[in-house]
Amino acid sequence: MSEKQYHIQLAKGEVGRYVLLPGDPGRVPVIAKFLDKAEKVAQNREYTTYTGEVDGIRVSVTSTGIGCPSAAIAVEELARIGADTFIRVGTAGGLQTNVGLGDLVITTATVREDGTSLQYVPLNYPAVADFQLTMALWEAARKLGYKAHLGITQTKDAFYTEEDDPRLPQYDEIRARWKTWQKANVLASSMESSAIFVVSSFRRLRAAEILAVIGSTITGEMIVKKVGIEKMIKTAVEAIRIIAARDRAGK
Q1: Does the predicted model carry a pTM greater than 0.90?
Q2: Can you give the chain as a three-state secondary structure string?
Q3: Who is most buried in 42, 108, 118, 239, counting CB within 10 A?
Q4: Which residue segments constitute the domains of the chain, with CATH numbers given?
C-alpha cells in the first residue's frame, strides 16, 4: 500500500473514485448507512472516512471540517490516492424567500467570498460545479420527488456574519452585501464549495454540491431546524448511481 496522506491518513486502495464530502465528522457514519458494506477506514483531525459500495461500486464518505482551508486539503489529498468525483453534501442558510426550510439547493456556481481559493487563482477565475455531476444531482432529486432549487450560492469564511448583529465592525457593509446577493438571485450561503470547485476545476476533477436548507441568512437565523438532511443524502447517493452508470457506459 502507498504512503498515507498526511491529513486524511488514507492511502491508495482505501477510497473509491466517488466521494461524498460532508463537513461534520459526525455525519459520516450517518451517510455511510446509505452505502452497502461500509466500514470506517480512517479518522484524523476533522477528517473521518468510511468506504462502502453503491450498486457494487466503491464509494467513500470523507468529512472536511468547517470551511474552505480544510475542504481544499481533503480534495487535494483524496485526489492523490485515486478519487476524482466529489459531491459536497452540506447545510446552508437560504437567501431567497422561495427557498424554504428543508428544501434542497443544487449549486451550479458559487460566489467566492473565501480566502482559500484566492491563494490558488485570482478572483476572476469562476468557481463552477461540474455540469454532468450537477445534472445527475438534479435528475436524482426529480426522480425522488424532492423539492430542489438549481442555481448560484455564496461561500463565506465567517459563520457569524450571517447574524443580524449591529456590533459587527462592518455591520452596514455586511448587511448591504447580503441584500446584493439576494437581489442577484443567490440561493443560499455555506462555507466550503468555492475551494472545492476551484481545486477540482484546475486539477481536472469533478465536483458538485447539494445543500439542505436549515436556516435563513435573510433573517439572520443561521440554524432554525435541521431538516432535509436525509433527502440530501439520498439524492447524492442516487446521483452517484446515475453518474457511475454513465461512466461505465463511456458517456
Answers
A1: yes
A2: CCCCCCCCCCCCCCCCCEEEECCCHHHHHHHHCCCEEEEEEEEECCEEEEEEEECCEEEEEECCCCCHHHHHHHHHHHHHCCCCEEEEEEEEEECCCCCCCCCEEEEEEEEEECCCHHHCCCCCCCCECCHHHHHHHHHHHHHHCCCEEEEEEEEECCHHHHCCCCCCCCHHHHHHHHHHHHHCCCCEEECCHHHHHHHHHHCCCEEEEEEEEEEECCCCECCCCCCCHHHHHHHHHHHHHHHHHHHHHCC
A3: 239
A4: 18-249 (3.40.50.1580)
